[in-house]
Amino acid sequence: MWAGVRLGLQILRVLLCGTGRFDSDSLPPNFSSVKELNARSGDLRSLASCRHRKGASMRSLTKFLVMPLSFVIFGSPIVAGNFPDSGVPLPAGWNDPVFHLSQNYPEQIPVDSYPWLQFDPATQPDNYMLSVLQYCLEGNAQSDWVLQANTKRGWYHAPWMHWGAHGREPIHGLTFERMSQPGELAPQQTSVLQNWAVGMYNAPGGYTIGRVWSDPLKPNTAFASFPPNTVSIKLLFTEGTPDQVPYLAGSKVWPAYVYVNPQNTGPGAPRVVKTLYLLQVDVAVRDSRVNNTTGWVFGTFIYDGRNQGNDPYSKLRPVGLMWGNDPSLGPAQYQQGARPTETRLYQPTQGIMRHYGWLGRLNGPVDNPKSSCLSCHSTAQWPVKAPMVPPVNTPEGSTIWMQWFRNVPAGQPFSTGSASLDYSLQLASGIQNLAAWSNTCKSNPTAPVVPPCPNIEMLERSAGPRQRRIPLGFPVRR
Prior knowledge:
- By secondary structure, the chain is α+β, with helices and mostly antiparallel strands.
- It is 23% helix and 14% strand.
- It contains ten helices and eleven strands.
- Strands 1, 2, 3, 4, 5, 6, 7, 8 and 9 form a nine-stranded antiparallel β-sheet that branches. It has a two-stranded antiparallel ribbon with strand order 10-11.
- The longest helix has 19 residues, at 425-443.
- It is globular.
């Protein structure tokens, strides 16, 4: 272990001071050669320097080192995990604040009050939704969603969502969402619009995330069962302006480092800092009162600039909430006049909502109209054996199609042979991203990735033989 500590100190000296070399006395026996590590030090130093901007703390600079250092004693990492903020370099000349992952996950659930428990989601949906929103805003609105600065209660991000072309951008930690096609947000919308989002969990959720990721290289899906009163909230922003989406007038805006062209979003696609507008807010609550369906209540808000209020948050209006997928509601029943009974839609927002979910189930303005909030999140599992929406060309209402509109109980997987991730697509995305990073490092141990690839022998101890790739399954977004 001391050899690993000495190695870590030398890495820090090389990175922070720009000087120093690795010597053989510092190397644990698993490192193949001093030459290899000395060669790697230049890549690490350049990686750290790209994050060393005004306003970035020493802690953020060293985040890129903690994961490699955890390989030093592979069976028992030196640290429980310190995950990267973003894999995207900051735009040239950026001197304003940057995103930092909130990852000081609690080891036990603190005492808290949960105001929505005084309301029935089925009979008092508006009160339920607004109480959840107010709970989420407390401390976060004042700190502009810098979770570490919230003095009211702890909130936490899910790790490993920095990976890939659609991973966290570096200014606000936003990830790439489904794009809005012309006309989906408003009649005046004439072009495809990018949408970006960031989500976070309260302390019960952070507690669960910390347990799943207690070993940063071996997430434990057995711990992926969220306790009652877990809450997640997601802020969704769009590049659409009030000219194309008039009800966005006066909305909250954030700068973000996003794609220049929404038709070019692949690896290495050009990026630019754009002003994004808050469009949609999603919430999810683990509520044991609805265990007879899914155990979760999902809700969506839309920003409505026509609404009265002194700030953008007061102009958020509920779109609706749902606690079940109405498994028996198909096209035939809908044509006969049946409507969802496990969804509640808010009438005043119907004037600006261009679509909901499939057959009147809940979904927000950014979401897929052929799905629902609970439908896509029910696919959160590992391995990812099912796509988030029914496969293309599946007949609507068919037996296969309706598999996506079951009431999957909390903690149960969507597919046989997978482990449930309890409706958390953020956990699913993170685990899949870790597997993709591992596969990349196996193929190219010197790949310029974040975090840097470890010694291949050490990687094999966690992810299996170099020749064996981890199957990624279907793509996961969010």
